[in-house]
Write a structure and sequence with these properties.
Blueprint lengths: L8 E10 L2 E11 L15 H8 L7 E6 L4 H6 L18 H14 L11
Antiparallel strand pairs: 1-2, 1-3
């Protein structure tokens, strides 16, 4: 008997609204690990909201999200998921070099050991 492999992404009954405006209606989704997927739709249809929920940056009103068997928060803490913003931006108070190092600095401070040494 063959077992169905755990998908890379499993979404069940996902709903999200802002005030009286529903953004995502019940959504069920299974994506196989390593697959390449495009989310296409008109402005305001919930594409960014869905991606923010997959990354754990936005909480669903109802439903569950699992990334390789982990919740989005667990996957983010384990550095198994990341987000690239739609609009790139620099922090004006940082130098060019400091802006370029930002992800390394954030990665060090988010490490499970809490160490900030360059060897991490």
């Amino acid at each position: 008997m063959s077992q169905i492999p755990e998908p890379g992404v499993r979404v069940r009954g996902l709903r999200k609204g802002f005030g009286e405006r529903p953004v995502l209606e019940p959504l069920d989704l299974d994506l196989e690990a390593g697959s390449i997927v495009s989310v296409i739709g008109p402005s305001g249809c919930g594409k960014t909201t869905l991606l923010r929920m997959l990354a754990g940056l936005e909480s669903p009103d109802t439903g569950t999200v699992y990334l390789g068997g982990s919740t989005p928060d667990e996957a983010r803490r384990a550095k198994k998921v990341a987000v690239v913003p739609q609009q790139p931006g620099l922090l004006p108070w940082r130098t060019v070099e400091a802006n370029a190092r930002l992800l390394l600095d954030v990665g060090r401070s988010a490490s499970p050991s809490g160490s900030t040494s360059p060897a991490d």
